[in-house]
Design a protein that fits this description.
Blueprint lengths: L5 E5 L5 H13 L1 E5 L8 H14 L2 E5 L3 H12 L3 E6 L18 H13 L2 E4 L2 H11 L6 E3 L18 E5 L5 H7 L1 H7 L7 E5 L3 H8 L6 E4 L4 H10 L2 E4 L8 H8 L3 E5 L2 H7 L4 E3 L4 H13 L3 H13 L2 H15 L1
Parallel strand pairs: 1-2, 1-3, 3-4, 4-5, 5-6, 7-8, 7-10, 8-9, 10-11, 11-12
Helix pairs in contact: 1-14, 2-3, 3-4, 7-12, 10-13
């Protein structure tokens, strides 16, 4: 592959799925990271650095459609460079009932629309996101391509015996996060399974305080963990729940399935895409259906977890992602 191709990579590589794309592209191209600012005071420095890096590059590659990628697309067009953006879910969502999604907030909607209308290529991690972007941004579908996130089955793998553990991972900061990730339904199911350990990893203080009000004794809250510690919990858990209102292609669900957790999920878009016929479903927020799905998962044979792992290895491998992404750049540049 031609190492002379230079990419200005606009994204926070502390996120595992963003870092994964950075590592893939770095195998074949010269990649220079420009990290979006975390504070308002960092925006001026970011804009000047991004302008310089874009001018020096052949293409900008941004994760998520927002203000940071709007600047990347603007400078790409100004300097006559190519531009790409990866859409993960929030940036194509509209759920005003819980105040979630870029299209519910005018400050986020405007830069997202600018990106969608002016970028050269939009990459979505799940096909339903393409339909939303076409609906909300009114753009031609030809500029959108679906490239699912890839996962390393050699790292995310089963090890040791499974316990009678039901797990969910959710970076929920507040009540909006609780509603989005379906954590109320998860918590209210706990008392139906007194012999099982239920665990929520990643809920912040506001979300945890809200959920703890009626929490059963066999529900445990754990702070967000680094990957190597998180993997241990996947390996212990028999059941993994993704009971969200909305998802793109849920990372934690894929990682858990690679560790042979039996999946239970909401009957919606990216969750269905990931689980297929290897797990059990409940309608979002339906507590009776959630209990029944968890019961079926806990009662099923252990080889159901093997089927879940095989599905992720087949459809969402990092090797498949690597080849697809490499070929995309080869045709665009």
């Amino acid at each position: 592959m031609n190492k002379r191709i230079k990419i200005a990579f606009v994204g926070d590589v502390s996120s595992s799925f963003v870092k994964n794309d950075y590592e893939i592209l770095s195998e074949f191209f010269d990649v220079d990271v420009v990290c979006p600012p975390k504070k308002k005071s960092g925006w001026l420095k970011f804009i000047f650095m991004l302008a310089r890096k874009t001018k020096q590059s052949d293409v900008t590659f941004s994760w998520f459609a927002g203000s940071h990628s709007a600047f990347a697309v603007f400078f790409s067009n100004l300097f006559r460079k190519k531009s790409m953006v990866v859409v993960g879910g929030y940036d194509a969502a509209y759920f005003p009932e819980i105040n979630y999604g870029a299209f519910t907030n005018i400050k986020e909607k405007i830069p997202a629309l600018y990106v969608y209308k002016h970028v050269n290529k939009i990459i979505v991690v799940e096909s339903s996101l393409k339909e939303r972007i076409i609906k909300y941004a009114k753009i031609n579908e030809d500029k959108i391509e679906c490239i699912p996130t890839g996962f390393n089955g050699e790292y995310w793998k089963p090890e040791g015996a499974k316990g009678n553990v039901v797990l969910t991972v959710a970076l929920a900061k507040d009540i909006t996060g609780v509603k989005l990730k379906g954590l109320e339904g998860f918590c209210r199911s706990v008392d139906s399974f007194p012999d099982s350990q239920f665990i929520i990893i990643g809920a912040k203080e506001k979300a945890k305080d809200y959920l703890k009000k009626d929490a059963a004794k066999n529900l445990k809250f754990i702070e967000f963990l680094p990957q190597h510690e998180l993997r241990t919990y996947y390996q212990r858990a028999k059941v993994y729940c993704q009971l969200s209102l909305d998802e793109g292609l849920p990372t934690a669900l894929c990682e858990a399935m690679l560790c042979e957790c039996i999946p239970v999920g909401s009957n919606i878009n990216g969750i269905k895409t990931v689980i297929g016929d290897t797990g059990f479903y409940a309608n979002y927020g339906d507590e009776q259906e959630i209990r029944e799905a968890i019961h079926r998962a806990l009662s099923t044979m252990d080889n159901q977890g093997e089927k879940a792992r095989d599905r992720i290895k087949k459809l969402f491998s990092d090797k498949r992602k690597r080849e697809t992404l490499k070929n995309l750049f080869s045709t665009m540049i």
